[in-house]
Amino acid sequence: MKAEEMQSLMSTLSEHPEEGERYRAALDLSRYPEDGVVNCLVERLTREPSRAVQEAIVSSLVAIGTETVVARCAELLRSDDAYVRNAAVEVLQVLEDKSLGTVRRLLDDEDPDVRILAVNVLGELRRKEAVELLRRVVAADPEINVVVAAVEFLGEMGLRREDRETIRAAV
């Protein structure tokens, strides 16, 4: 019964012509922390024409909150769609305990845009480890736009002596 309901909800989300039905299906799928559900939600997020349904999908991804959600949202940081990228950042921020390791790895990504988005995730976490990672970005990232993003977040967090030293060394 559970599997049948889950399949029915995924089908409704993917195929139903009415926005309200897709919206309800997206929210109801939050009760199923299965990889297949996560994949369905992520795929639909990238194709969904309704912003309300997209927001329901993001809510469900946060509610499910598994490692698969984190991995799939990390992939979405490469999307051409700004809303999808920002939604992925939001999910990674909310799931900070599960996403920190992934975000740390993204700081070494070859794509500077992905690194900037990883900095954006860290900048909202307001955690000691996030501050330390932002300092590392300022000190070591070769791309000036990534460094500037990290400096901005360090400034918002309130610069400490070691932050000022890191920034001075980078300049």
Protein described:
The chain is an all-alpha fold. Helix content is 80%, strand content 0%. The chain is built from 11 helices and no strands. It has helices spanning 2-15, 19-28, 35-47, 51-64, 67-76, 82-94, 96-106, 112-125, 128-140, 144-157, 161-170. Helix 3 packs parallel to helix 5. The chain is elongated. The model has no long low-confidence stretch (mean pLDDT 93).
Question: In brief, what are we looking at here?
Answer:
With 171 residues, the protein is an all-alpha fold.
Strand and helix layout:
Layout: H1 2-15, H2 19-28, H3 35-47, H4 51-64, H5 67-76, H6 82-94, H7 96-106, H8 112-125, H9 128-140, H10 144-157, H11 161-170
Helix pairs in contact: 1-2, 1-3, 2-4, 3-4, 3-5, 4-6, 5-6, 5-7, 6-7, 6-8, 7-8, 8-9, 8-10, 9-10, 9-11
What brief labels describe this structure?
single chain, 171 residues, mainly alpha, elongated
Class from helix and strand fractions: mainly alpha
Biggest sheet, in brief?
none
- What form results from the Cα inertia axes? elongated
Distance between the termini: 61 Å
Tally of separate helices: 11
**Which series of helices and strands comes N to C?**
HHHHHHHHHHH
What Rg do the Cα atoms give? 18 Å
In total, the number of strands is 0
Strand percent estimate: under 5%
Average pLDDT taken over every residue: 93
Unreliable spans: none
Percent of residues in helices: over 70%
